[in-house]
Amino acid sequence: GLEILGTEFSETPMVTIQMNIKGGSLLEGTKEIPYSTASFMVGSLNVGTVNKTAETIENELEKLGASISFNSSNSSTNVSVYCEKAKLDTVLALLDEMMFQPRWDEAEFKKAKKRARENAKSGLTSRSAGAGNAWKALVWGQDHVFGKYIGADEYDAVELSHCKAYYDKYFAPEVTKLVIVGPLAAEEAFAKLSFLDKWQRKNVVVATPAAGNQFETNQLFGVEYVDADQSDLIMGFKSLPFDVTGEFFQNQVMNFALGGNFNSRLNLNIREDKAWTYGIRSGYGASYENLPGMYTVSAGVKAGATDSAIVEIMKELENYRQNGIKPEEFEFTKAALTASEALEYESMFQKAGFIMSLALRDLPENYPDLQMEVLKNMTLEQVNALAKQNLKTDEIIILVAGDMLLLKDRLEALGYGKIQMLNKKGEGKIKIIKATKKPDKHDKNYK
Fold this sequence. Notes:
By secondary structure, the chain is α/β, with parallel strands linked by helices. It is built from 16 helices and eleven strands. It has helices spanning 37-45, 54-64, 88-100, 106-123, 127-140, 152-156, 160-170, 186-192, 247-259, 265-273, 306-323, 327-342, 348-361, 367-377, 380-390, 404-412; strands spanning 3-8, 14-22, 67-72, 76-84, 176-182, 219-224, 230-238, 277-285, 294-302, 397-402, 419-422. The strands form two sheets. It has a six-stranded mixed β-sheet, with helices on both faces. The protein has a five-stranded mixed β-sheet with strand order 1-5-2-4-3, sandwiched between helices. A hairpin with a 3-residue loop joins β3 and β4 (76-84). It is globular and about 65 Å long.
């Protein structure tokens, strides 16, 4: 059931192998597999085998000028390998041991758990971390696998036995995509990877999670960071799921002049004209599989200018929605996106990332060409229609992580209601207000 993809790339003697094993946090949250088990499981795979200590493996890899690493995410566990082709057999023999003969070292596990606890606690002092925790809770929900805060308390619940249980149950080939890029033909690549023949199916089923929260009105949320001289500002709304050439892709083109590049309207206003930030970006982001994505605007802004920055951002979004793109902006968008596409898949790692995208989203191999064809044929009128339809300025949630003693009254004076406070873990009561009557965006009097 293992799916292998790759390309022969002879401009360098190096080889990279990437594996994406579906699961991660999506398979956690039970008594048998508590939250954060996958993270600790891959940590155990990194620190030794039955026959080799972590130090031995580290020394061997250093002599080979190679790397092998295991990590995890919300939706997968991952393996990464990098080495010279001449040393590939030796490196893959090490990978074989690390994948199929883990050491399960209790002492190393306890050290990893202690480090994770300390990092989790110190991480909460970071304003951007607090904003990120709160944003995930808002977008997905506080009990959702993608929105739940995982920290020191959750780490306490994980034991090495849980890691073994995850490995035995979910570390499986039928949910794995493997990408190999380097100076190898297909037959040679398959021969090198033949050690994976012994990897047995486990009939893993990964359920698709819920779509998360949907906000129908503008709402304000805050995270307190006393005496912060800057505010972390995130604004956005739920949007469309990923597609290759349809409205999701076209929205990215539409947004480019608004907030997708350094010369965008948002950056020229908030950074260049007002000097309130070092940089501001906006964009349509893809989510997991076919779940809805998000449109977000994000920036770190001067504390005293937080409310003014929100006013200017909303003004820019609404102006773009109402009046559309200028002809010179449209031409620049087409030229810039076409030029960047030409350089996007040049390096080994870019190629590996591209192929992994093909595998994970089941995309056609020529999808960049299909996108360029759509881009070439897009008109200014299409961009303006997309802006009118998909810049949902009446559904934007606004999150500020900063000095709320300074900002609370000024933020509430903007007219988006009372500010709802969350803590640095993203915890707190979230009231999702329903729209009593949706405004008609095609009405000439719409604001």
